[in-house]
Amino acid sequence: MFQELSDKLEATFAKLRGRGTLSEADIKDGLREVRRVLLEADVNFQLTREFLERVEKKAVGVSQMRTVSPAQQLVKIVYDELTAMLGERKEGLKLSSVPPTVVLMVGLQGSGKTTTAAKLARRLKAEGRPVRLVAADVYRPAAIDQLESLGKDLDIPVYADRSTTDVVKIARAGLDASRRERDRVVIIDTAGRLQIDDEMMNELRRLKEAVRPDEILLVADGMTGQDAVKIAQGFDSALGVTGVILTKMDGDARGGAALSIYGVTKKPIKYIGVGEKSDALEEFHPDRMAGRILQQGDVLTLVEKAQGAIDADEARRLDKKVRKEGMDLSDFLAAMKQIQRLGPMEGILKLLPGVNAKMLKQANTDPRRIKHLEAIVLSMTAEERKKPDLLNGSRRARIAKGSGRPISEVNKLLEQFRGMQKMMKGMKGGGRMQFPGMR
User: Fold this and answer.
1) Which of 115, 149, 331, 414 has the fewest CB atoms within 10 Å distance of its CB?
2) Res 328 pLDDT > 90
3) Which CATH number is 348's domain given?
4) What is the pLDDT of residues 349-388, one digit of tens each?
């Protein structure tokens, strides 16, 4: 996500950082390069022009400060304007004071609307809000089956009626069921088309009138760039959408849709889809996303991920055991498994400040690595795990053979273990083995 854009902007600012002062000509040259980078990222031309005009106006007259260089001040100006372009502040889901909150999901076919409806339902359920899905796509083959299957996997009720193709009737009946069961939120999955047409919009208008939704969320494929912006304009003029969910953002290295959609439509991006798994839906924070684009990291999102993924009780138990008895290889494996729950290592590293594509390439982010580590540790005897000093050459060779991994990986694991063991010893005096989410 945004990798191409991020790397090119970083290269541009790196040139400016090498200069002690910035003249007006330097700023113009730098912004000319930023303009090229934004247009290559498929950002709307008019928005790019207005963005650069605002940056240039603020940047002219930036002077040398004792603690902050002109180049750093320019990056801060670009960060502020990127945040404004992306929507200024986070816009969450608007929940009705009288439940259930009705969410109408709209979009073209192939944008990921049905899976996104299920992801949103999962997220709301995890927040403690009983939620129901309504299958109102009666045209796409197996659309109802798909939603029911997703609902079953997530233990979320799905209302469906195969006896009729009257979507208004289905939506009303689903809403009635939601009221009876005292759900907090009902999400209605509607049919998509290959393109915007009158028939589609008339049906959605009838649905809107019948269920009076609190939110009309447009689900758009982020990889379609400026087409996603045009689609948003079309749906908004016909229905008055309240927000946007951009899908497939994990596969879009440019990010033109995300950078353009708010500026053109003034409709906030509320969530982004960042993968195929049911939990791969993130709240959209304009300020955090601007930080990611400028390689300043996104530590707040990393902490939130950790709080949701790490077992606090297990982390406390591990901390207590390590402080009392020291760390052994079983503890090391348990700690690595806790970290694995945060998701793919590449995704975690991208949230850290200063991490770029080159660094990611050099890092070993193979998702199978924890499995390999586990195979090595489980090939040891209980005594060897407790007393790693027993692992001489012949024992290491046996472990390598038993785990199906090269002996170099066994050696590397032990080297990493000793490094962590040393760090833990240094913390024994008063520190803790602290995982996010622990109290």
Assistant:
1) 149
2) no
3) 1.10.260.30
4) 555 555 555 544 544 555 677 788 889 989 999 899 888 8
pLDDT of residue 123: 94
Q: What is the mean pLDDT of the chain?
A: 81
Integer Cα distance of 351 and 183 in angstroms: 35
Task: Report the C-alpha gap between 266 and 101 in whole angstroms.
Answer: 23
Closest CA to 113 of 83, 90, 140: 140
CA 148 to chain centre: 25
* Pairwise CA distance, residues 315 & 79, whole Å: 36
* Region 40-68 average pLDDT: 77
> Is the domain of 25 the same as that of 143?
no
Band (258; pLDDT cuts 50, 70, 90): confident
Same domain, 194 and 118: yes
Residue with tokens 């989410």: 437
Decide: 112 and 248 in contact? Cβ < 8 Å: yes
294 inside domain: no
Is residue 92 one of the residues assigned to a domain? no
Determine the pLDDT at residue 348.
58
Token pair of 35 as six digits? 């303009």
Number of CB atoms found within 10 A of residue 205's CB: 12
Residue 434: its pLDDT value, please?
47
Domain around 344: 305-427
Which pLDDT score, from 0 to 100, does residue 433 have?
A: 45
Query: Highest mean pLDDT: which of 39-48, 226-235, 392-401, 423-432?
Result: 392-401
Beta bridge partners of 131: 185
30 within 8 A of 62, measured Cβ to Cβ: no
**Same-domain status, 122 and 267:** yes
Residue 233 contacts by C-beta under 8 Å, 6 or more apart in sequence?
264, 265
Residue 268 has what DSSP assignment?
P
Domain presence at residue 94: no
CATH number at residue 58: 1.20.120.140
Q: Are residues 209 and 320 in the same domain?
A: no
Length of the chain: 439
Query: ∠ CA 108-111-115 to the nearest 5 degrees?
Result: 120
Pairing of strands 269-273, 281-283: antiparallel
Has residue 324 got a pLDDT over 60? yes
Q: Pick from 27, 61, 86: which residue ends a domain?
A: 86
> Residues 179, 209: one domain?
yes
Q: Does residue 100 have a cis bond before it (omega within 30 degrees)?
A: yes
This prediction has a pTM of: 0.69
Instruction: Domain count for the chain, please give it.
Output: 3
Q: Which two tokens stand for residue 218?
A: 């447009």
Is 73 in the same domain as 148? no
240-249: pLDDT as tens digits: 999 999 998 8
